[in-house]
Amino acid sequence: MARTLLRVPGTAQRGEVVEIRTLIQHPMETGFRPGADGTVQPRDIIRRFTCLYNNRPVFEADLHPAIAANPYLTFTFVARESGVLAFIWEGDNGFSQTETRALTVA
Amino acid sequence: MNHPWTGPRLARVALLLAVAVFGPAAGPRSGFETMSPELRAMQQDDLANPGMLHVAEGEAQFQQQGCTACHSAEAMQGVAARYPAFDAARDGPIDLAGRIAQCREERQGRAPLPREGKEMLALSVFVAHQSRGLPLTPNPDPRMEFVRRQGEALFRERRGQLNLSCGQCHDDNAGRRLAGSLIPEGHANGYPLYRLEWQGLGSLQRRLRNCMVGVRSEPFAPGAAEYIALEAFLAERARGLVVETPAVRP
């Protein structure tokens, strides 16, 4: 499991714009770099990030080579109802990680 | 020809006096101060600083590896600020990673970890992070004085095909540019740190190897006594700067 750092407010007012910040540990190996022995290192990147809010996507991103290691993504959305936020990173070599956080809307 | 006490010479003396009186604030300046505002913000925000991922990893390792049987995280406060230290058992100086290795191997009977592997870096960054914000207060043990002098000699010694000493860059040319990079004063108050060029966390010894290879000299072997001597001198040179671990550098 890769380590992640998430900033998600636990509570929000209805209609409030909430800011989410995510950081995940990942080498984001581009697939173009030669390693110490001169052979090209195979590509190993996160290809897709999705944030679901009660199972509906509120933010999605495609990632590509040349994005730095440990991708940092920040985005906002409008809090409308209490529920669960799911953060999903998927990539090469079957990489897949999901983190969830509860959000209570008053 | 100028008379020695008139013309440019006198102007230069006046300038030196002016610098002495009004000049740049004395005291060491952390590499943090000369970074771009974006990088400074990245270092200061624990949710954007990738080094914090390794601190979290180290916190888990500290539990998993049984360090908590003898130490609490709070007891690690201030430790990194006074390393390297003098180790009576080996009758020589020891750095933080060396101390952690000693605890693992001699007190816990575990197999050695690679010095710059993920786990050792994580443990070191977690321990050093407990001192973040505390001023460097080099070890007062009188036996460290000799080690610091050795380190200073290494710092002033010219090396490599480029025939440059550490001091020629970090004392004489700090603040100027070397190709695209700004030459910092070369203080070691943020290690282990996250370097963008490495795209990862790295130790002080890795940084020093980079500088040695940069002047086309043969770096010392990993873990060599010379690194610890250099580190002891660097700590004295940076006395009073606060520990930034995990710092971020370009």
List the SSEs and their pairings.
The complex is a heterodimer of chains A (106) and B (250).
Chain A: E1 4-7, E2 11-12, E3 17-24, E4 46-53, E5 56-62, E6 72-78, E7 83-91, E8 95-105
Parallel strand pairs in A: 2-8
Antiparallel strand pairs in A: 1-3, 3-6, 4-5, 4-7, 7-8
Chain B: H1 7-22, H2 37-44, H3 51-64, E1 85-87, E2 92-94, H4 96-107, H5 118-129, H6 143-156, H7 166-170, E3 177-178, E4 181-182, E5 193-195, E6 200-202, H8 204-214, H9 225-237, E7 248-249
Parallel strand pairs in B: 5-7
Antiparallel strand pairs in B: 1-2, 3-4, 5-6
Helix pairs in contact in B: 3-5, 4-5, 6-9
Structure write-up:
Chain B: Heterodimer of SoxA and SoxX. Chain B: Belongs to the SoxA family. Chain B: Keywords: Electron transport, Heme, Iron, Metal-binding, Periplasm, Signal, Transferase, Transport. The complex is a heterodimer of chains A (106) and B (250). In chain A, the strands form two sheets. In chain A, strands 2-8-7-4-5 form a five-stranded mixed β-sheet, with no helix packed on it. Chain A has a three-stranded antiparallel β-sheet with strand order 1-3-6, with no helix packed on it. Chain A is an all-beta fold. Chain A is built from no helices and eight strands. In chain A, 17% of the residues are buried. Chain A has one domain: Immunoglobulin-like. With 250 residues, chain B is mainly alpha-helical. Chain B has a single domain, classed as Orthogonal Bundle (Cytochrome Bc1 Complex, Chain D, domain 2), CATH 1.10.760. Helices cover 42% and strands 7% of the residues of chain B. Chain B contains nine helices and seven strands. Chain B is globular. The N terminus of chain B is likely disordered. At the A-B interface, strand 1 of A face helix 3 of B.
